[in-house]
């Protein structure tokens, strides 16, 4: 069951010893859900508490070892499933055609510049996100600093005249938030110098932050190539640990013979066989939960999978699942995304240490043509919330028509999120991690 923290006593403000009345807290009005699961659905605070209680350090360690090259996704999903992505050279068909159509020696001006496509991995827990910002330790800042030695003389002179550091300028396929890792992030860098080799770029970036940033591949591409606009799909993976170190083996809260959470779609007390419970008998009696407001912290991974599966093959507006977006991007086509693949499965996370035991986790794979800001993390948290409440399989689709973003759950922690790869050819279902 959800544990509520005890009420904290509010003391006097040190800067106000006379104890004058403090500022009133802003009232928070939760979204008024009207479906049958409204009494068993977690609040935003309960969602946050549940997600924060997971043993995230194990996931962080796993991503860290992946960036260092000590572990690969093959050990998580099997070699056959992910064999197509294990190679270090990633040059898509469109890049080959672009390279073939460009003869740099015959062109001048802006067409004579050399563009490098850089595929790299980095550990999100070591940085304050991708985007370069003053006073923050970001991935972009490290990459551009390491590329400063490859800037052409004309640009270097302009930077000196403006008293700016001599750094390169990179364009990325997608900016990741603080704490989000990447296995095959794609960025590009161009210069008018012709003496730079792929290996020179790779060695310079690898020396910037060893163990935290690693180059997967470097290749020359056409000037027309753009990491973001040329991309046709992105693949994200979210790993949610199911074991709670403070409560022993916590896996029983997720899959059991008898599920205590209310299964609202039956609407009456009886005993039935639910497909989502893998053939187990489910004791369906949600009367007490509706009257007392008891909320279970148990859910089935297969229920999350069914909820996400409903999103596949549809062009939908995900504005309710976005956060911190500009007003101009809150309606219309800017909010529409086409999800190619959305699945969840229970997977054992291998332990980085030889003596340690694997951790039971729920892995969520999402592939779409684009993602809105924090969309993946909100989708994950909302899918788990709806599964715990016993919502119907089309619950996520119904939330698309909500009138307020409070209808969806707050974003899940960034620790579990990873940008797996970016595709520049048509999406192939056979490359999915979770079939």
Automatic annotation (TrEMBL):
It is an enzyme of class 5 (isomerase). GO terms for molecular function: RNA binding; tRNA pseudouridine(38-40) synthase activity. Keywords: Isomerase, tRNA processing. Its EC number is 5.4.99.12. It catalyses: uridine(38/39/40) in tRNA = pseudouridine(38/39/40) in tRNA. GO terms for biological process: tRNA pseudouridine synthesis. Residues 359-425 form the Pseudouridine synthase I TruA alpha/beta domain. Belongs to the tRNA pseudouridine synthase TruA family. This is tRNA pseudouridine synthase. The lineage of its organism: Eukaryota, Viridiplantae, Streptophyta, Embryophyta, Tracheophyta.
